[in-house]
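So, read this over?
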Amino acid sequence: MQDVGWAHLKARESNAKTYARTFDLVLMRGAGVMVYDQKDNGYIDCLAGAGALALGHNHPYVADRVEPFLRSGHLQQALDIATPAKIEFTTQLFRALPRRFAEHARVQFCSPSGSDAVEAALKLFKSATGRRSVLAFHGGYHGQTAGALSLMGNVSAKQAVAGLMSEVHFLPFPNAYRCPFGAGGAESDRLSLAYISNLLDDPESGITKPAAVIVEAVQGEGGCIPASAQWLKGLRELTLRHDIPLVIDEVQTGFARTGGMFAHEIAGIEPDAIILSKAAGGGFPLALVAYHERYDKWSPGAHSGTFRGNQIAFVAGAATIEYLLHHDVAGHAHAVGAVLRAGLERLQSIHPVIGDVRGRGLMLGVEIVDREAEGHAKAVPANGVLARAIRAECLRQGLIVETGGRHGAVLRFLPPLTITAQEVDELLVRFGRALQRTRMPRATASLACQ
């Protein structure tokens, strides 16, 4: 029956589907880091709802809050009217936010996707500053709605869409492995900041004073590329000097994913806004933008939406945040992430197709390269075809990973933050087996896009 249902779904679902195109199976149940298909085959889930399931599948701490709520008679939908669930979530959220930021913060609950929170931030800072232009970064990902899509580095999703938001300008994001300036290491940070500084100082840069700069502290879909603390500090100094609001997109990095409660905290900076979704709702849809009260100048109704009052997500999100704080899950993600990274680096020493291991905490990426290409002593070409072949073999070995980054050549590891060191060991065994058993495609397809 499940096979029949899957075939029916495959025939009826949109051509725009993504993960369903890659993972050709029906998932029946999940517990912790494991998911199981209709034949009860188990898979270690290193996708975790694209990072939304911070505590994994069906965590009892969350279930013990959600199940009684569903039977309680409390409102299931309330628009943006106050409810006990909303009050408790907001209380827990402000406990989790960086202390200095929280002292002067306001929060706007949005329709339940990170894209909508990005749209809200764009409206907010354009309204508050009276400016039009926005600065974003190469490799950035902020969602799929019109404004958010305009901020995306990857051009493939934008090519067929006319009428995207105007006056978006892209800046070079530092990358120690593939430096946009051909330098690498700390020089990538220095040159990126010098470029941005010159652009903002130059009266003939062609760019009007921006309403905001939006950035990920660790680029997610862009290939798990971490910004250093030094670079983030430098960017914050530049935006303060030029009176430009700094918006940190923490949709995928927020709530302990990178080994701290928020990825930007590694730099000790205070942004003007933080965009949150995914893990915020404890596995249920929820998105919000938290921002400094000085910018709270928009009018009532300036950003609204029916499901900005997702009561179940408030309950699950409050439980998740409480668990993260009480059990130092950020510290656990830092420690276990180091174990995973060390294991991936050991595999890199065995398998030369792994060009780079990068990321932070339990948000790690492995870039697959084409070692057979000639004339690339320093910058070995990315190999997206091989990355996808390894991903397919990972699935056969009981490991769910997804690709991302340029040319789809980065295998991304975003397991639930509750993963144990023992489960990491098994993950590495399965990944190593997949690397060993994958037939290596030739270099001719190495730069094929995903």
Summary: The longest strand covers residues 354-360.
